[in-house]
Please model this.
Amino acid sequence: MMKKVLAIDFGASSGRAITGTFDGEKITLEEVHRFSNDPVEINGTVYWDVLRLFYEIKQGLSKAGNFESVGIDTWGVDFGLIDEFGCLVENPVHYRDKRTKGLIEEAAKIIPNSEFYERTGIQFMELNTVYQLYSLKKYRPHILERANRLLFMPDLFGYFLTGNKTTEYSIATTSQMVDLKTKTWAGDLLRRLGIREDILCPISPSGTELGMIKKEICDECGIQSVPVISVCGHDTQSAITAVPADKKDFAFLSSGTWSLFGTELDEPVISEKSIKMNVTNEGGYGSKIGFLKNIIGLWLIQESRRHWNRHGKDYTYADLEKLALEAKPFKCFIDPDAPEFVPHGNIPARVREYCKNTNQPVPETPGEVMRCIYESLAMKYRLTLDNLEECTGRKYEKINVIGGGTKDTLLLKMTACSTGREVEAGPVEATVLGNIVLQLIAGGAIKDIEHARQVIKNSEKTKLYMPENSEEWQRAYERFLSVIK
Model:
């Protein structure tokens, strides 16, 4: 019996509405709507254009035809605040906004980082929800005073659709505010930071039903009312759900604007090694743990291309890959996670400045800049894999690469060479497939996560990349380590 569901998938720069039709063996995807996701800066603050994004969701509902449920996944950490009348207090602020600068160090004076990590298991990043709330408490307390509920982005859109408020488990854990042992809010830590616990919703397991789409939205979009399923709202955890791994122990690289490199575990890893390496423990479907490292990923390439295009050089991604291949290998390296590469702007100039400040040859041409970025990302993946194996005590023979980065053959080849591991690329639409299979599990069409991964393996083709030039890459890796110390 055919089952058709709708996935709404938001990335940091675009969104899609994609239907998934399951025939009992395979899932067939159809993109019915695509739209850009453009932040808006007003008076020095960067916001998400949330009302426009909800309009695009309704466009997707209208174009999808008949479907049996809908699920929404987005990026992590960001949120909207709802007042006592059910209205949005202000547009959600973008995680790349500068309001959290320096707050990790300030919060650590109240709660030592070691204690914070032991409780939440989350990688320290200034963009995390807890630091965004601490910023509001410090600089704009009137905003928090007006708030009755906090809703993370997928839960916010779910609220707009159903009128029901909840917080799905995976998206909650990105906040750095969940006690991973109890799987509840770490209220005592929040109180010490002066953050109100009463604005937080109860945490719901991934894959539960949020509610039915409201009648007025159904009438507007010309659809029947169907349930909204709280799939893994964090896109990373949705993608992990779709890894077509053939072993219980697997390493994955979710490659997109951000690179998420990690593995799936039954329990969090909280140790001196993991806190030193700043590895994160995010909650996933079935209370699994995505033990992973957030790495700035294709953002460096995307933002470089935007800069050059703004200045009259209309490069395609294929053009940039070709230019990188033509440039001399292993000339210079950057740490992709250096703070200067986070904001929007002139990434090529920042790459040159980084190389100059670390006494390396300075890349001048676009091809040299691209080569530096590509090789540095591949090297950072190697370092992260080494750290992952050290923390877990396990050896990963293969890396499953999923997401949009599976289209970037140069980076995949370099990743295999740098890590010395076989790389299996696919599926491209891992996040969407993870969203869809959790809806199908909730609706009873798929039995469990193991069955879901087998269905995805049946539905999607993957491609293998093997390591080459191991000695040359090993020598270059040692240079990379000396540069980023």
